[in-house]
Amino acid sequence: MTASIADLTGARLREHLGGEGLRFHIGPFLYQLHSEWLDIAAWLERLYAVYPLAAPQDCADFHVELFWRGWRKRQLGVRFDGEILPYPLFGSDYAAPHMEWGLNWGVAMHAHWLLMLHSGVVERGGRALMLPGQPGSGKSTLSAALGWRGWRFMSDEFCLIRPQTFDVVPFPRLVPLKNAAIEVMAAFAPQAQIGPEFPETHKGRLAHMRPPAEAVAAMAQPARPGWFVFPRFVAGTSARLQPVAPDLCFARLATNAFNYEVRGRTGFDTLYRLVSECPAFALEFGDLDAAIAALDELPARD
């Protein structure tokens, strides 16, 4: 049985963070995390307990480090693979969200062997439901909610496509809930583990939700592309699911991706195949239960 972060005692966890680094998996990526501020261990014990530790012989994909900076006022910074990330200095009370942004930085900037769409992803019956959207569209909240209502949560923001096999690769990281979504998800899924609030970030009020343990346990299992649904939260509206033409779907995806241009011809060919094979819809919703009921009626895929 694979060991997880929960298997490390508090003292041993701190030894890893301050020494050779804590090595753990999120989806296809192996992170090595160092921290000069050892109290980040409490965050990891609370929200990362179910994430698997890496085998000693495995090489890390990304190295992330929290380190002390400044000489007048002691504050923290983030290094990624030795490069200082362009964040303002921050106090230890905001170390956790900056660490999370550092973990995401590596994927968005360097995981170019995958086609990366800016999209939530959930799975059922071996098929992935991909939920592309801009910030504020409700994709993260809807993806998180579906993960507690019969779908396997795969990601709230990164839809990772392996061009060689056409698989959708899970990346079940913590879900950053923003502003009103914090209370919405706390009421919708009271069994969910939600961390402390950070009231003043560049994205507003923020709290992180751990995905269901089953989603983390299954993060080595890819899915086949199934459907595209472009969500749009509009308070007070009923759920409406309407078809989206393939040409419009392609244009929206191409402009809503992390590395479509970087992948060149491979990016075009992969996106063309996705749009050709996956029916696409627009979903306007004002209520999570109604949205999930509408998505449960999507046309079946073999």
- Ranges where pLDDT stays below 50 over 5 or more residues in a row are none
How far the N terminus sits from the C terminus, by CA atoms, comes to 33 Å
Q: What is the CA-based Rg, rounded?
A: 19 Å
- The number of strands is 16
Total count of domains: 2
Count of helices? 9
* Beta-strand content: 25-35%
Structural class: alpha+beta
The main pleated sheet reads as: 8 strands, mixed
Mean pLDDT: 94
Helicity, as a percent range: 25-40%
Query: In one word, what is the shape?
Result: globular
Q: What is the N-to-C succession of helices and strands? A: HEEHEEEHEEHEEEEHEEHEEHHEH
Protein name: HprK-related kinase A
InterPro entries: HprK-rel_A, P-loop_NTPase
GO molecular function: kinase activity
Organism: Plasticicumulans acidivorans
